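Task 17 of the worksheet. Students: predict the tertiary structure of the chain below and write it out as C-alpha cells. Keep your answer in the requested format; marks are given for formatting as well as content.
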Amino acid sequence: MGQVDAGVLFLMLFTDLGLSADILRAVSEQGYSEPTPIQAKAIPVVLEGRDVLAGAQTGTGKTAGFTLPLLQRLSETKPAKGYRPVRALILTPTRELAAQVAESVKTYSKYLPIRSAVIFGGVKINPQIATLRAGVDILVATPGRLLDHVNQKTLDLSQVEILVLDEADRMLDMGFIHDIRKVLALLPKQRQSLLFSATFSNDIKRLADGLLNSPELIEVARRNITSERVAQVVHYVDKGRKRELLSLLIGSGNWKQVLVFTRTKHGANRLAQQLEQDGLTAAAIHGNKSQGARTRALADFKRGKVRILVATDIAARGLDIDQLPHVVNYELPNVPEDYIHRIGRTGRAGNEGEAVSLVCVDEHKLLRDIERLLKSEVPKVAIDGFAPDPSIKAEPIQNGRQNRGGGKPRSGGNSRSRGNNGSSSQKNVWGRQNTKAGSSNGNRRSRSSAQSRSQSA
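Model answer:
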C-alpha cells in the first residue's frame, strides 16, 4: 500500500490538478480556487486510476476530493448513445449524506454531459425507477434502497467503473457490511474503488484489504483528533436540570443556530417540545421522522426559521451546515468516536466553533473515555446555580449505542433480511471467524444494526 506524503503542501490551485475547463468553471462559480489538503492529495491519485484508502474528518472537503476526479474520468469517455448504464456508484450510510453528495455531483457536473441521480429510502420508489430507466451515469445511494432496486430488477450495476464508499466507518457501525458485500458481488471485478473513512479501525482495514487493489493511503489529519478550531467545554449538571441549563445558555448567549445531540429518538422529540415551551424554536430530526419532515426541519434550521435542531447521531451524520457555530452534547454518546463525529459538525471549512457538553453524574465514565481518546482533558466550567447535587448517585445509562434510535426495535418494517447480523457478531467484516476474546463491541453492533438501517436506508 502506497502512502501520499503528508508533509507540507506547496501552494496549489485547482488549475494545477489536471481537471477540465468545464469542471474548473463549476468549481470557480462556487468560489473555490485552492483545494483543501484532502483534495490536493486525493484528486491526482484518483485521476491516475488508482484505488484509494483515505482518512479525513468531516468538513475537510472530502466530497469534492472524490467527486471532481470521478467527473473528470467519466467525462473523458463520451456517454453511450441511447440507454446509459450506471458507470459510477457512490454509497453513503444516510439519506442526508446521500442528498448532500448528490448535490455536489450535480453542482460540479453543471457543464458536463453527465447525468446523475440519488436514491434512498423513506420516499416513493416509482419516481426513482423512472429516473433509472432513463439512464444515469453517476448514482448516489444508500445500501438498503439500492438493493431494493436490484431485487426489483430496476437497476443494473454490471458496468460500474468506479465505486466510492463514503463514511465507510459509519456504514460498518450501522451494520451495513452484509449489504456492502451483496453490492460488491454485483459489480465488475475490474473497477476503481475509493474508500473514505473518518477513522481507520481494524474493521475498516479488513474491509480495505478485501475491497481495494494496492490502494494509495491518504491521511490529512491525525487519527480521531478533533478540529483545533472547535472550542470544547464541559458543564457538570444534574440530569433533571439539563434542559433548564441548555435554555439558559442559548438565551443568555444569544445563540442563533444550535445543533443538539441526544441518544434516543424519544429524547430528541421530548427535548424539542420542551425547548418550544421555553420560547425557543426547535425541531427534532431522527430515523422515525419521514424523509419530508427531516428535509423540512433541516431547511428551516439552515435558513434560521428554526433556532435549535435536536438530532440523534445517525440522523445527523452527513449534515452539511455552513458555519454552524454551536454543537451541544445534551447527552454524551456511549462510544467515544461518536463525540468526534458530533463536534465535527462545527469548526468546518476554517470557521470557529464551540462544542458544549452537559454532563451528569451518570456520564462521568463516558467523559473519561472521550478524554482518553482525545488524549487531553476537556475544560470544565461551572455555571452559577447549576452545581450538581452530590447526594445524587450514578445510575446505569439506558439505551444509547446498543439501541441507537431509542425505544424498542420495530417489528416488520425493515425486517426483511439484509444479512443476519446476529449470527455474525463473532466474525470480521468478511465473515471469517474472529478469535479475539471479548466481542462485546461486535454484539453491540449486531443488536443495533437492524434498527440503524431502518433509520437511514
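Marker's comment: Residues 2-219 form a domain with the Rossmann fold fold (CATH 3.40.50.300). The longest strand covers residues 230-236.
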